[in-house]
Amino acid sequence: MRKIITCVDGSAITAAVTDAAIWASKKLDKPICLLHTLEKQQQHGADDYTGTIGLGARSALLEEMTKLDEQRGKVALQLGKALLSNAAKKAEAAGIKNVDMLQRHGDIVDATADLYEQTRLIVIGRSGEGHDGNFNVLGSHIETLLRKASQPVLIVPAGFKQPTSFMVAYDGRATADKALQKVIDGGLLHGLDCHLVSVKNNESNLKDKLDAAKTRMQSEGFAVTVSFIEGDIHQSLMEYKTTNDVGLVVMGAFAHSKLRQFFVGSNTIKMLERCDVPLIVLR
Q1: What is the side-by-side strand order in the sheet with 224-229?
Q2: What is the DSSP track for 221-275?
Q3: Angle at the Cα of 254 (from 275 to 182), degrees rounded to 5?
Q4: What tens digit of pLDDT does each residue of 45-73 get?
């Protein structure tokens, strides 16, 4: 069975990530897999001082450094297990019956890639360990993960509140319709109010296509609000989100349009850094 792969690292945002995974698990009726990775940190060793200390002293220092690294690794492993256990207890207390815990050595991107065949959704915090207290900082792995992941990614801000609405930027092209189909087929956003927002572009008959998209979503049971706005894509969408109290933003990472610049690259990073609600990135 495919799972909600939930990346936890012990940072302050871990609680919000766990809450988001619990919400997704209940919506999709899928188990949670809590994933914690132990990344090797580069240490400054005695090799740095080869030319200034004697061979005997250097050997003794290397041996001492090795012992310290081993001890540090053991402590990190124990802390990781405690972190996973606490997150699992929280999920189980919330009614999730099937919770797995997985600890891996290495990079979080590689670890999630190894689990793609088991993945229904990846849940990860917008900022990770080392960025505590600065939630506008984007985790260093996020962009790489988004470019490599074959499954949807839910990116969680500092706090998580169960959304009651979501917004999709609709540009009238085939890839936008593909995104809507993924929303329909996915199930995660069913029961939430849908905001279809188009920023005026060069696409012919965009208003008609927007109305057709509205009809399509309504036929699938969504309550839909449509808006046709003008201006800078990023600024206009963020203003709409704030004004209409949108609880979640859906982004498509496969568009070949003007919105591609918004959804892939520097504008995506800008959105991720500044948006204070969860974002789902579709592939």
Answers
A1: 99-105, 32-38, 3-7, 119-125, 153-156, 279-282, 249-252, 165-169, 193-199, 224-229
A2: T--EEEEEE-S-HHHHHHHHHHHTT---EEEES---SHHHHHHSSHHHHHHHHH-
A3: 80
A4: 545 555 555 556 667 777 777 777 777 76
Give the Cα separation of 108 and 7 in Å (integer): 8
Please tell me whether residues 175 and 214 are part of one structural domain: yes
Q: Which of 105, 126, 156 is the last residue of a domain?
A: 156
- Cβ-in-10-Å burial (0-12, 13-18, 19+) of 1 comes to exposed
Q: For 140, list phi and psi in degrees, rounded to 5.
A: -65, -20
For 260, the domain range is 165-282
193 and 123 within one domain? no
At 52 the pLDDT is 52
